[in-house]
């Protein structure tokens, strides 16, 4: 087949024209950005703009302006800088290629296929990437005309590079131009403030092909949640499941039977089966909740007569606690680390309990669900997704211990108080701390003036103590 050869001078002329076009593009982008900033009032020392951007003068007008979302100028500047850097690198690459060609033999030529590949890899793709970056930049919007115009832009949009994050946090307006069912004209998708601090990890998490299978990266999402990026964004990809998933057992069998190994994705755990999780080895991947995957041992919990080595004074039985409010305990929350045994035991008493769970080294969430119970995948950072005065009981064990900061604990306890109904029970189960810190933690629990229904302090060791209590929330009628 006859191949078409292009002369060297023609290619050099084409590259020179490309440099001129790229230079013109940079000038146009710079002028348009400066013009937009000029219209917004940034180059001018305008008092209204100063109040808005720099927070000068606490007047009524300044307060009204401060209520408006601030436009993230720094993020916009960074995004424009990224585009200019890409164009600069492309120009340098083209100049280097021209000099390289000048050194080569004047009679040398390249084939059409080689020329096409060079254009695609070295020119078209970098230009397309710069074009996409320019299209993603969101310039500030103005409300009103003239000097009284105010900036109206949602923050954070220009902070992120991955387009899927930017689409997620962009407000979604009503298609019919009316307020929606929530009484607003747009919907804002929330992300935690820690998402900005963990920008790289969040962009990795949100970098996927829309509609395809998600990466096996649930542990990345959990790491983001624990570090304050909670809630993490929704994703438009399909969650993976075990390739050998089996039908779960009926509810009358699943409560007290170890689930099938095949129903869990083990790739992110140190263990690869439940036998390993039950073994007493240091490499099983988790340290909390010792023995909680052994259902024979789990059956003995909260049943005083069957407690191993006898029952301690801090071990309250479920029968004794429910007897405090006969017929009134119907729904509750178990806040701790475990495989849902407390909820399973309460189910036998016709009480529905939701169990909080994080997969801290082991598949706690999966096991709770496979037992036929409800796992709530939340962290300590998050406000409980329940309405005020709704829970009959909140039970906590194995999670809130003497490691927790008192201020953090205060926020958590106030949230528990919010969702616990008047007359509801707060069951603090085997809370342990250093003996010298006991008074501080006792104050934390007693500050709400709950009625003591059960209260017991027991030595755990020479320097540590257990505290168990059942407290009843007062009516607080206003």
Layout of SSEs?
Elements: H1 8-40, H2 47-54, H3 60-66, H4 73-103, H5 112-136, E1 142-143, E2 150-151, H6 163-169, E3 172-173, E4 186-187, H7 194-197, H8 199-205, H9 218-226, H10 251-254, H11 274-278, H12 295-298, H13 318-322, E5 331-336, H14 341-347, E6 352-356, H15 364-370, E7 374-376, E8 391-397, H16 406-419, E9 420-434, H17 438-446, E10 451-459, E11 464-472
Parallel strand pairs: 5-6, 5-8, 6-7, 8-9
Antiparallel strand pairs: 1-2, 3-4, 9-11, 10-11
Structure notes:
With 478 residues, the protein is an alpha/beta fold. It has 17 helices and eleven strands. The protein has a seven-stranded mixed sheet. It has a two-stranded antiparallel sheet with strand order 1-2. Helix 1 (8-40) packs antiparallel against helix 4 and helix 16 runs parallel beside helix 17. The protein is elongated, with a radius of gyration of 31 Å. Residues 1-6, 40-71 and 306-310 have low confidence and may be disordered. One of its GO terms (biological process) is methylation. This is S-adenosyl-L-methionine-dependent methyltransferase.
Q: Number of helix segments?
A: 17
**What is the terminal separation in angstroms?**
92 Å
Integer-rounded radius of gyration: 31 Å
Structural class by secondary-structure content: alpha/beta
Could you give the order of strands across the largest sheet? 7-6-5-8-9-11-10
> What is the average of the pLDDT values?
81
> Could you please say which CATH topology of the domain at 300-472 applies here?
Rossmann fold
Using the 3D structure, state the CATH architecture of the domain at 300-472. 3-Layer(aba) Sandwich
Poorly predicted ranges (pLDDT <50, ≥5 residues)? 1-6, 40-71, 306-310
Main beta-sheet annotation: 7 strands, mixed
**Helical percentage:** 25-40%
The coarse silhouette is: elongated
**What is the highest CATH level, the class of the domain at 300-472?**
Alpha Beta
SSE series? HHHHHEEHEEHHHHHHHEHEHEEHEHEE
Q: Could you tell me the number of beta strands?
A: 11
For the record, what is the CATH homologous superfamily label of the domain at 300-472? Vaccinia Virus protein VP39
Work out the strand percent.
Answer: 5-15%
Keywords: Coiled coil, Glycoprotein, Membrane, Methyltransferase, Signal-anchor, Transferase, Transmembrane, Transmembrane helix
Protein name: S-adenosyl-L-methionine-dependent methyltransferase
Transmembrane segments: 14-38
GO molecular function: methyltransferase activity
């Amino acid at each position: 087949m006859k191949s078409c050869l292009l002369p060297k001078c023609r290619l050099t002329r084409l590259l020179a024209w490309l440099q001129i076009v790229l230079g013109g593009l940079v000038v146009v982008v710079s002028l348009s950005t400066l013009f937009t900033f000029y219209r917004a009032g940034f180059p001018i020392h305008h008092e209204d703009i100063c109040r808005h951007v720099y927070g000068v003068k606490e007047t009524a007008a300044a307060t009204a302006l401060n209520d408006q979302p601030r436009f993230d100028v720094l993020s916009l500047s960074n995004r424009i800088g990224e585009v200019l850097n890409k164009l600069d690198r492309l120009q340098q690459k083209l100049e280097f290629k021209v000099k390289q060609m000048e050194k080569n033999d004047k009679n040398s030529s390249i084939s059409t296929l080689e020329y096409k590949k060079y254009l695609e890899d070295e020119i078209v793709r970098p230009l397309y990437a710069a074009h996409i970056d320019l299209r993603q930049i969101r310039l500030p919007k103005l409300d009103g005309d003239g000097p009284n115009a105010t900036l109206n832009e949602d923050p954070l949009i220009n902070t992120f590079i991955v387009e899927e994050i930017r689409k997620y946090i962009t407000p979604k307006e009503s298609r019919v131009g009316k307020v929606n069912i929530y009484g607003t004209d747009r919907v804002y998708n929330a992300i935690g403030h820690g998402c900005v601090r963990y920008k790289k990890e969040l962009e990795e998490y949100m970098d996927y092909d829309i509609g395809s299978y998600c990466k096996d990266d649930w542990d990345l999402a959990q790491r983001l949640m624990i570090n304050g990026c909670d809630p993490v964004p929704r994703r438009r990809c399909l969650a993976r499941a075990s390739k050998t998933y089996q039908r779960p057992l009926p509810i009358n069998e699943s409560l007290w039977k170890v689930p099938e190994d095949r129903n869990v994705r083990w790739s992110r755990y140190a263990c690869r089966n439940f036998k390993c999780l039950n073994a007493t080895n240091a490499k099983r991947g988790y340290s909390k909740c010792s023995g909680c995957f052994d259902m024979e041992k789990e059956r003995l919990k909260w049943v005083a007569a069957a407690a191993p080595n006898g029952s301690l004074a801090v071990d309250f039985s479920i029968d004794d606690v429910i007897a405090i409010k006969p017929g009134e305990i119907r729904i509750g929350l178990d806040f701790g680390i475990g495989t849902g045994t407390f909820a399973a035991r309460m189910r036998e008493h016709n009480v529905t309990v939701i169990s909080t769970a994080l997969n801290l080294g082991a598949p706690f969430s999966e096991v709770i669900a496979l037992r036929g119970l409800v796992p709530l995948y939340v962290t300590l950072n998050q406000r409980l997704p329940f309405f005020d005065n709704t829970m009959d009981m909140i039970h906590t064990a194995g999670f809130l211990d003497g490691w927790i900061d008192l201020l953090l604990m205060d926020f958590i306890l106030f949230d528990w108080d919010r969702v616990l109904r008047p007359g509801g029970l707060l069951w603090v189960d085997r809370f342990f701390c250093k003996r010298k810190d006991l008074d501080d933690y006792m104050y934390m629990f007693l500050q709400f003036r709950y009625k003591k229904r059960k209260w017991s302090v027991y030595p755990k060791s020479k320097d540590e103590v257990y505290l168990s209590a059942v407290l009843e929330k007062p009516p607080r009628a206003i």
